[in-house]
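Case 239 in the screening queue. Each case pairs one protein sequence with one candidate compound; here the compound is uridine-5'-diphosphate. For every case the pipeline is the same: read the inputs, emit a complex structure as tokens, and attach any notable structural observations.

Predict complex for case 239.
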Amino acid sequence: QPTNQPYQRVLLKLSGEVFGGGRVGVDPDVVQKIALDIAEVARSGVQIAVVTGGGNFFRGAELQQRGMDRVRADYMGMLGIVMNCLALQDFLEKMGVETRVQTAITMGQVAEPYVPRRAIRHMEKGRVVIFGAGMGMPFFSTDTVAVQRALESRCDAVFFAKSGVDGVYDADPRKDPNATKFDTITYTEAIQRKLEVVDQTAFTLCAENKLPMVVFGMEPEGNIPRVLKGEKIGTLVSA
Ligand code: UDP
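Case 239 output:
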């Protein structure tokens, strides 16, 4: 589909906390709202893939602190991610948007395996591709996965939707009242300042491959379609 939008193909990363509406598990009302936003973007002709987090179920590092084996806990984290993918898929399909979930851990009954070229094909056909189960490997975060999937499926940019923060700050705005927001920042500076809004590994991978990154807040409603269609919201991180 021809489009006059600045981005033709985008990757959207949604953290797990977004799905839970602040609690453990999935809040269907919240997921429905996100699905509406994503449907709007897909219908505008922008090709879209999504990577979901899983922090609303399990984070490996947290379970490790409470005595669990890190590797097994990370696999639990990855399985949690898949539940978010299925919830999002459900609401999108109800809205008439075609979707495919592809997981990095094979589970043929619920999703396709991760096959990058097929993912691209789905997007070309206007389907929303939802990448689940992270990288399929312990010790990684879904931020890093988002950048890797964006690179491999040749997206124009990677977008991190955040709840509670609306961009990249020089300090954590939830802790430091003097924190100031950047409209733009270079990867080098984001890495040197050890900013934590997105994982350092994700910043590094973006930097090495010159992939533009946008960090923005979910609030107010409608920010997802606005930013994915090219409005300057949040912080642009680039070379
Ligand atoms: N995880 C993993 N490998 C990956 C992606 C995720 O082991 O490639 C595990 C890890 O335990 C992580 C959890 O899945 O804590 C949930 O992912 P993440 O913390 O990135 O989710 P978010 O913070 O975005 O909700």
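Case 239 observations:
- The domain at 9-238 is CATH 3.40.1160.10 (Carbamate kinase).
- Residues 102 and 131 are 5 Å apart (CA to CA).
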